[in-house]
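Q: Got a minute? One more chain.
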Amino acid sequence: MFMKLVDVHAHLESSRFKDDLDEVIEKCKKAGVEFVINSGTSPERNRECLELSKKYDIVKASFGIYPIGNFSKDIDGEIAWIEEHADECVAVGECGLDFDTEGRKASFEKQKVIFEKQIDLAKRLKKSIVIHSRKAETEAIEILEENGMKDEKVVMHCFCGRKSLIKRCVENGWYFSVPPAIKRWDNFKMLVEMVPLGQLLTETDSPYLGPIGGERNDPSNVAVTIGEVARIKELSVEEVSENIFENAKRVFGL
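A: Always. Here it is, folded:
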């Protein structure tokens, strides 16, 4: 069985791939992965993503500024760099909010400024935007809505919000990217049950969020997510993979 697969969110620039990335890319191609969107999180990582997109034909870049760890960086300078390289990326992000600790939650106002600058950038560039919203789902949704992002190409990456928030995002016309961790995390199963197939995407967040906890993840594992979506939706894996591939092409202009 051959499926056209797409991983809309990965971090192949991670040090965990430094010794065998060529082999990983070949493995992904053999598995049917047509595209991997590699998400930048900082000025340094954005440039690494750009280089990987030049080196590997299946890798596309997304440039973003992570909600934490970048407060001392020249944010406006990085926004300008992304604008200069807009033709070399398919999306803005990942960006958003992170309240994983009390210290991070306390930096909300700083995070919000960086987030809103990237929302504005995505609108100017007419690019999709990839959202990180760990333990800050409500606030991230509110900021997106306040900044006119209803019915825009918004991708909620690794979304772990409650049912009412999933419903709200669906009604806003946004998309959800689901990782292979769906095999072990029930919240992703619930999300897939609720979200129409036309608003689902597959991701891996490689090297994280794999089907087996503690093991390095890679983009070939989007096939695991496809299998789970097919099981939950009671559809064939071929139908699911084809629909998700078309979703990704529509969202990212692939």
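A: The chain has one domain: 5-252.
Q: Perfect, thanks.
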